[in-house]
Amino acid sequence: MPDTGNVRGSHSVVVARPRLALAVAVALLVALVPVLLDTAEVGAQDGDQITERLEGCRASATVYPVTGPFVCPDSAYTTGNLGSGWNELDLVPHRLTLQRSANSSTPSYEINIVADAIEGGTPGYDFISVPVINTALSHTSCAVSSSGLQTKTPGVGGTDTSIYRTLTVSHDPGTTCVLDYYQRLALGSSKYAGSSLHANVSNKDFTLGGVGARDVSIPVREIQPQRLDKTMTATQGSSHVWNVTKSAQPANLHFADTCSSATGSRTQQVQITIRWEKLAPTPSGQVTIVTSISATNPAHRPLVVSVTDVIRSGTTVLDTKIFDPVTLAPNAVTPIGTHTLVIDASQAVNLNDIATGTYTDPVPGHPAISLTTTATATATVQSTGTSENATAVISDTESITGAGLDFAVTGVSGASGSFTGYTAGTFTTGPVVWTSEPQSGNGSVTFTKTVRVDQPRITSGTLSDTASLLGADGFATSAGPLNVAITSSAVTTLTINKTIPNILQGAETVTFVIDVYDADRTTVLRTVSFTFTAGQTNKSTSVSLPPGTYDVVEQTTPGWSPQPAADNVNLNLPTCANAVTFNNQFGPASARVVKVTNPVGNQAGWVMCLLGPGTPVAPGECRTTDAGGNATFLTPLEEGNYSVTETPRTGFDQTGAVGCSFTVNYPADSGRVFTCTFTNTQRATVTVVKTTSGQVPPPGAFTFDIRTGASTTSLGTILDSDTNDAAGVVDFDGANPLQPGTYQVCETGMLPGWESTLSGMAGAFVPGSDLPDPDNSVVCVPFTLAPGENRTFTVNNTPPPGGDARTIGFWRNWSSCTGGNQDDVLDETLAEAGGILIGDLLVDTCAEGVSILSKSTLTGKKMASDAAYGLAAQLLAARLNVVADAGTCAAAITAMNQGQALLDSINFTGTGDYLGPKVKGSTLTLRNQALAYADTLDRYNNNTLCP
Fold first, then answer.
1. N-to-C CA span, the chain
2. Mean pLDDT, residues 304-319
3. pLDDT at position 47, please?
């Protein structure tokens, strides 16, 4: 892929990767990591956020795309250690997932992809491909461009030199962009100075603050090198010279997952081929030099190698051979060829050979591979004398090292031979020795070996094979040892099961999040979530983990009962799989009642009833409140509508809500306690204790009212009226106690000459006293009742003489001719007096009295504007009070005498006009005097004149 250099935009992604974080190779953080845009650098809007996840492919020949595109299956990617199996000149696939926040307003951003390049002069990665968009996993708005491949010294994360590309990425807010690329492990990377090789994501300016390390790594000690192998022999004489070589297919064995149930997960085959060649006889006195060269390619893909072989005497070059380029099969030992040279014996001093391999990457666009591999060998001249060495016997010895590893020879093809003390197909650690029958010419033998890992385990070892050839007359040569490196890994599986009751309805959903921790519960290694919709009750998922012990913890979900953690889940080999189950139950809602009373102290004994799904039929489940006013219902609430009611109690008013209703909806209301609070206010009572001159009066002698709204301008509303009982008590308890509030207690029907202590109480007033011609036989006292109060008024009445006077309104109303229900007090008093002279009129009948008291003529004509009639009314009432033995004073007597004299002087008979508003002169003077006398007498009749 050609590099592109058009870099757009200028803002960066904040990513940090402290190198020390890489020590925890199993910290496989799956969740996307939030990364804040550098708004100061690019002018982005506040709130822009990119989340990123960097992954690499776990090495496996079964999933690796040998010929490209170099992208692994989705399941092969991991965020942690890529494990063993990646070797020199492999192309290691990586994947970068970028998610843009929904409120992002910046059109594009920049980010670096980085790889370790050189440490201590040793190469690591030497190439990063141009990322391509994974269209299957990305939003259609995803676009990316890349800078050319660049270097940075010093490198990122503490390495000497890094290589990197700067990417400019754009995609719509709230969408995801997935990029695939690969990195080439350099020739020589197996000797990298660090313990691991890293791939990173960083800011454009390589800052590492913000979110910490985000990288994937390969352990260096697991990387197998590209290698040249050779043998060298030198023989002198006229006999035959033999050459022996060997090769392996594959060159290395890697058991990618010994926990897998797939066929061959713990057994693999390797073929070791031994070839021998019988060369033409060497002329006597000359030396024949034979070198055999093979190349081991541990990579997952084919490579091309060109080998140059130089045979030397000391440092003097005797001969150079350039072999044609050879395509090396993936993970195989490939023979390159043989270099034969015949020299004079005088030249056969310090014979040595150096083979140099130059590699070519067959993928177009990849940079040249600058380093080479070498193989050296030396040889001592063997004298063959006169022996012919026309035949030879080949022996092969093989053994295996490594915990849990053994092998079996399961097939032999080619030359005939036999095993010494070994039965084919039997697993062993060796050594296994095979010897051929005498060979007289060129030939080969291929051993098919089955290598086995005894159980799921992570191990490493070597299958070693050495071939030797012994000529019939003593010529000897060998090849090897040929070492096939063996590695294994294991991926354990944790299955997480999740169940819930079938309670979701409609569009309701609930999501549960479960974290997988390390054994110390310090690091979250995996986070999985389960989202349930209506009708779904169970789900399951499996996660791959390195062997170990784990704690599985479910995060608390509002409305659902917390689940205990699954601690110390065993995934230590050979245990490859385990499972945990979280059976979530929602906590059922419940209902309770709180009773509040005013005043406090009456909370106990109230009957409360809950009615709704799951309760008995109406009135439902009923509970009684305790001393604290609490009552808890036992019915577990189901989804639906509920109501709570109380049984009324006499003397109390519900001053809060008259009822309580609510709707239960799961799972939102899981575990909720629905609380209904009822407030009741106790009514109050009023009692009047009545005495007459300190003695208990006869039953029914006095009448009292409880009024509301009474004042000097209003008679108010009578709420209750009652008379004293035999004990002198007026009890307003009755069936209707009073609600707390402001009232008036009133004594009614107080006759002239009587005096009540109620009149002397604070605030006492005559209702309607500010209205024309009031009746002052009623006296009221205002009071305020608190909740539950029992108010008592003690009232003593004193009979005549000397009591209170009564107004013209009283005398007019308390008569036989006004049609009321009052006693005939006017009639009785006129009879007792034998008539009362008012001016020239002797008032001795009820009708005359009512007319005069009403300020009317005897024929009923209203004369209120005539001062003579106003004086006559007040004078008649005053003299009636005197007859009734009401108390008097000098001012009252004088006013009565003066008033009578004035009315007598104008011959008042209650039949005509006397002192109307239009009079003048001396008559006007009389009018003014009449008004003054009437005012004085009015005050007397209202008990405001005399002390």
1. 123
2. 90
3. 40
- How far is residue 842's CA from residue 827's CA, in Å, rounded to a whole number? 14
Q: Encode burial over 43-81: b for 16+ CB neighbours within 10 A, e otherwise.
A: ebeeebbbbbbbbbbbbbbeebbeeeebbbeeebbbbbb
Domain identity same for 353 and 445: yes
Per-residue pLDDT tens for 899-923?
999 999 999 999 999 999 998 888 9
The answer, yes or no, to whether residue 488 has pLDDT greater than 90, is no
768: containing domain? 685-798
pLDDT digits (tens, 9 = 90+) for 685-704: 999 999 999 999 999 999 99
- pLDDT tens-digit readout, 163-190: 999 999 999 888 999 999 999 989 988 8
Alpha-carbon span 758 to 781, nearest angstrom: 7
Number of domains in the chain: 6
Are the C-beta atoms of 336 and 295 separated by less than 8 Å? yes
Do 693 and 817 belong together in one domain? Answer: no
Shared domain check, 208 and 73: yes
pLDDT exceeds cutoff 80 at 559: no
Per-residue pLDDT at 39? 29
Residue 885 confidence (pLDDT): 92
Position 284 scores a pLDDT of 61
**Average pLDDT of the chain to the nearest whole number:** 85
Per DSSP, the chain holds a count of helices (H) and strands (E) of 7, 58
pLDDT at 16 over 50: no
Q: Helices 825-833 and 867-883 meet at what angle, rounded to 10?
A: 80
Give the integer Cα–Cα distance in Å for 111 and 35.
Answer: 11
Pairing of strands 476-488, 252-255: parallel
> What is the C-alpha separation between 359 and 304, in angstroms, rounded?
6
Least confident of 489-498, 651-660, 678-687: 651-660
Residue where a domain terminates, one of 680, 709, 730: 680
Alpha-carbon distance of 854 to 873, in angstroms, equals: 7
Instruction: Kindly state whether residues 347 and 475 are assigned to the same domain.
Output: yes
Domain boundary among 222, 247, 264: 222
Entry pTM: 0.47
Is 407 inside a domain boundary? yes
Q: At 750, which CATH number?
A: 2.60.40.10
Residue in this structure with the two tokens 């809500």, named with its chain if needed = 657
Contact yes or no for 531/641 (Cβ under 8 A) = no
Give the tokens for residue 684: 């109050």
- Residue 293 in domain: yes
Strands, sheet with 703-708, edge to edge from the N-terminal-most edge strand: 717-723, 703-708, 741-748, 779-785
Maximum average pLDDT range among 9-18, 255-264, 938-947: 938-947
Q: Are 303 and 336 in contact (CB under 8 A)?
A: no
Contact status, residue 319 vs residue 310, Cβ threshold 8 Å: yes
**Residues forming beta bridges with residue 654, ordered by sequence position:** 680
Q: 262: exposed, middle or buried (C-beta count within 10 Å: 0-12, 13-18, 19+)? A: exposed
Residues 674 and 692 in one domain: no
CATH number at residue 532: 2.60.40
Q: Domain check: are 506 and 387 in the same one? A: no
| pLDDT for res 283 | 62
Q: Which helix (H) or strand (E) holds 868?
A: helix 867-883
How far apart (Å, rounded) are the C-alpha atoms in residues 39 and 847?
A: 105
Scanning the structure block, which residue is given the tokens 């009052």? 822
In a domain, 12, yes or no: no
- The answer to whether residues 874 and 925 belong to one domain is yes
Nearest residue to 196 (alpha-carbon basis) of 300, 109, 84 = 84
**In the prediction, which pLDDT does 146 show?**
92
Q: What are phi and psi of 41, to 5 degrees?
A: -80, -40
Say how many C-beta atoms besides its own lie within 10 A of residue 888's C-beta. 18
Q: Which long-range contacts (CB under 8 A, 24 or more apart) does 561-567 make?
A: 561/585, 561/586, 561/587, 561/670, 561/671
Give the distance between the most distant pair of CA atoms in the chain.
195
